[in-house]
Every structure is written in C-alpha cells, then in structure tokens.
C-alpha cells in the first residue's frame, strides 16, 4: 500500500497527466499501468488471505462418524448411525454371497424396531421388558452390521409373498420360542395371524396367515432327542433316538430352523441301545460313568443332521448355533445378574467355556455333514448355518434381567437392604437384539442358494 501511495503522489506532483511532450505522455501511461497492476495484486492478496483455502473448508465440514459409546439414556438423543439406511435394501444385492454376515458390529439405528411391545400381541410376559418396567430404552436403537457388506432389512410383505402355501418350523428350546415371537411381531405389522394350535403348556404352537396359507410352528424339543423326566432332576436322555414330537410331522415342513444348547448342561442319564451308558453331572450315583455334556451334545447333533440331510427330505434347514448368556457374578439361581445398558464392541466380550465348546461341536458336525454330502453326489446338503453366537455375545444389554417380572423393585426404597431378584440373562427382550436374527435368517435361507434335494 505504501508503494501505491508513492506512485499516486508522484503522478499528482507532475501536474497535468496529459503533458505536452510525447516523452511525458509515455511516462504517465506507464505509471498508470503500474498503478493498476499493483492495485489488482493487492486486492487478490487481501481476498485470498481472508477467505482461506476452500479445500480446508471441505475437509473440516464433515463430522466424524458417531461413536456408539456416546449414546445417552434418552432414546431421543441417539446419534446418527454410522451407515446410511437408504443403502440397506430389501434384496440381497449388497450382501455378497462371499461376505461373512456373521462377523461385524452393532451400529446405532435411531429408527428403532419396526414394532413395539404395544403394537405386537405375541410377546411372552417374561420378555416384555418395557411393560415390566425396564427404565432404559437404548437397547432398542442398534442394528447388526456385517463388517464387509450391508445386510438387507427383513421385509414382512415380501417374506409372506414368498411363503405362500409354505410351512416354516422352529425346533428347539425356549430360545427358539423367543425367536418365533420376534418373527411373529415383525410379520404382524404386515398382516395379523391366527393361532390354530397350542399344547397344554403353550410350549409348542402353530399359527397360520390365512391370506397366504402360510403356516408357522414352534416345536418345543429342548434336547431334540427322546427325553423322559424333563421336569425332574434326573433326565433320561436317549442318545440314539430323536424326539418323535417333531420327527413325526417333519415331512410337512418346507423350512426348518433347528437348535440346541443349554439344556445339555442339566443333569441327565444317558441311554443307548436300551442300556444306560453314562451320565452328565451325576458323579457318585449308582456307579455311572461321567461322560459329560459334550458327549451327549455331539451325539444329538450327529443324529439330527443325519436325519435332516437324508436324500428324501424336502425341507431346507438352518442349524442355529448356541446362544451365549450374560450372567455375571453367578447364574440363574445363584445371584447372577446382567445390568449392562450398552452393547460390547467387536473386540469386547468373552464367551464362556461351555458356550465355546458347544459351538465348536456345532461347527465340526455341520462341516462333516457338508463333506459327506459332497463325497456322495457332489452337491451340498440342504442345510446351512445360522451362526448367531458371536453377534449375540456382543449384546449383554438385550436381556430382561430383573424385568423378567413386572416392576421387580416396586415399593422398595433406597434405604431398604438389597433384595435378591432373579435375573434372566439368557432370553431376549422383545423388541430387542433377537429381531436382527430374522435379517440373517432370511438372507441365508432365501437370498442365498441352498440346494433343495426334493
């Protein structure tokens, strides 16, 4: 700026800018050119310095992805998800058959579940956590996200359309019933269902969607094997006989989800070839040999897989892996609890030894079935794996805990001594994490090819 002032001053001192001589006119012309060049350079310098770099603005305008650990206790304050829901489609275009949909993380989903404990009438009282007084709701605001792909959302309308004139059965223990109730809640948002059968204890049920002639059943068979005295301390378990409660109607089914697990930890006496061959957890009783739960579980799975993979079976089958519990400082009847309100991250959480061993057996026996089928006729068995173990391990916040019962702390005051309330850290709140099992189930069973050996 000082240079500009000096140039302008020299021009004024010269008097008439259009002097009489050509030499003067040339000097004046050159001074004008120099003046406007300096003025333009100064203006550009000032503007550029004041606005900054547009590239820097672009880089700093996008916030970092929300950290799931930043969720507060209020559902309304949930952060934006780390992925875009519009990228999740109702087809399997984004979930490559090479993508491992069972490995991933739980990501924030402020949209929450597609149903509520009010809009669905199929929730068992023990899993109706909000109705029973659970004070937090953040456990509803997460969705399973595989590491390397997007998982399609469950579309109840599309599902019912594809299930016209079909029969889908879940065979297993109370976790299977928990899963069926989740599926019913999602489907009921598209169409209400009618119950057409239940046993005396409401452990086995059958429903039908009349407009699609779609039948859905849950068959309570906690061991999958023939078992006697299930309600008593010593269970008589026949390791070479399947439970006729499900095998006698198996030919009706088009799709089957089958699972076992926790019941094999109970005290049981083993029968094979009409002879007692050993037991689990019965040391010192009648000189029985302790064979352990891993022995009986492997026997059961081998028998089940041989049955469902037989050449004359039409049903497509999913073997669901064991469900880990999240009891801390005890178990069901020894003061165990689960009071966490946030999911674990992928690198957190440690599976209990018995869950790890049972899942190993499941994977080994499943692979053996596939290898045997390929050796016989070169095709894969009509069975696939529904590996929900790892994703479930990351959700210690999804259980009823003390809210298995209505208002378990009602009437208690802060000064009152702590009262033992039995916690349920095995089953799942509805709505809750188990709803994502449906996304996986449909992706594996319907969107990925399973050879149908009908």
TrEMBL record:
Record's keyword annotation contains Ribonucleoprotein? no
Q: What topology does it adopt in the membrane?
A: Single-pass membrane protein
Mind naming one GO cellular-component term on file for this protein?
Answer: Golgi apparatus
Organism of origin:
Raphanus sativus (Radish)
Residue ranges, annotated region (Disordered): 56-78
Gene that encodes it: LOC108848822
In the record, which residues are listed under signal peptide? none
Localisation: Membrane
Tell me its family.
Belongs to the PC-esterase family. TBL subfamily.
Keywords linked to the UniProt accession:
Membrane, Signal-anchor, Transmembrane, Transmembrane helix
What InterPro entries would the database entry show?
TBL (IPR029962), TBL_C (IPR026057), TBL_N (IPR025846)
Organism domain of life: Eukaryota
A Pfam family of the record is PC-Esterase
Q: Taking every annotated instance into account, which residue ranges of this chain make up the domain Trichome birefringence-like C-terminal?
A: 151-443
Q: What is this protein called?
A: Protein trichome birefringence-like 25
What sequence ranges are listed for the domain Trichome birefringence-like N-terminal?
98-150
In alphabetical order, the GO MF annotations are:
O-acetyltransferase activity
């Amino acid at each position: 700026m000082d240079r500009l002032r000096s140039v302008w001053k020299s021009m004024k001192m010269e008097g008439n800018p259009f002097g009489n001589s050509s030499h003067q006119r040339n000097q004046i012309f050159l001074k004008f050119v120099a003046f406007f060049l300096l003025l333009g350079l100064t203006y550009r310098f000032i503007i550029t310095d004041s606005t900054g770099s547009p590239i820097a603005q672009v880089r700093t305008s996008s916030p970092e992805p929300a950290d799931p650990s930043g969720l507060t206790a209020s559902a309304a304050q949930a952060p934006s998800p780390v992925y875009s829901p519009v990228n999740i489609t109702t087809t399997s275009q984004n979930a490559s058959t090479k993508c491992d949909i069972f490995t991933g993380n739980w990501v924030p989903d402020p949209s929450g579940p597609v149903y509520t404990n009010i809009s669905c009438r199929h929730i068992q009282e023990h899993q109706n956590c909000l109705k029973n007084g659970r004070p937090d709701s953040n456990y509803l605001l997460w969705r399973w996200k595989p590491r390397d792909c997007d998982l399609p959302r469950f579309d109840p309308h599309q599902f019912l359309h594809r299930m016209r004139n079909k029969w889908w059965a879940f065979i297993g223990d109370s976790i299977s019933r928990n899963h069926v109730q989740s599926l019913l809640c999602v489907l009921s948002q598209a169409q209400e269902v009618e119950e057409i059968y239940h046993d005396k204890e409401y452990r086995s049920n059958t429903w039908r969607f009349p407009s699609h002639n779609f039948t859905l059943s849950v068959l309570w068979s906690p061991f999958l094997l023939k078992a006697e005295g299930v309600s008593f301390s010593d269970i008589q378990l026949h390791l070479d006989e399947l439970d006729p409660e499900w095998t006698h109607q198996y030919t009706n089914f088009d799709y089957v989800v089958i699972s076992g697990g926790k019941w094999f930890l109970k005290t049981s006496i083993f029968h094979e070839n009409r002879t007692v061959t050993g037991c689990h957890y019965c040391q010192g009783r009648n000189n029985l040999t302790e064979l352990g739960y891993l022995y009986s579980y492997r026997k059961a799975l081998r028998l089940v897989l041989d049955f469902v993979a037989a050449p004359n079976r039409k049903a497509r089958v999913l073997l669901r892996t064991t469900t880990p519990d999240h009891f801390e400082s005890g178990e069901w009847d020894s003061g165990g609890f689960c009071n966490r309100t946030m999911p674990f991250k992928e690198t957190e959480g440690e599976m209990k030894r018995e869950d790890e061993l049972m899942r190993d057996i499941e994977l080994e026996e499943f692979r053996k079935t596939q290898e045997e089928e390929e050796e016989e006729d070169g095709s894969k068995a009509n069975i696939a794996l529904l590996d929900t173990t790892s994703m479930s391990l990351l959700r210690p916040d999804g259980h009823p805990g003390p809210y298995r019962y209505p208002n378990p702390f009602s009437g208690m005051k802060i000064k009152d001594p702590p009262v033992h309330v039995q916690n349920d850290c095995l089953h799942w709140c509805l709505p809750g994490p188990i709803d994502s099992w449906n996304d996986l189930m449909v992706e594996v069973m319907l969107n990925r090819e399973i050879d149908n050996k009908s």
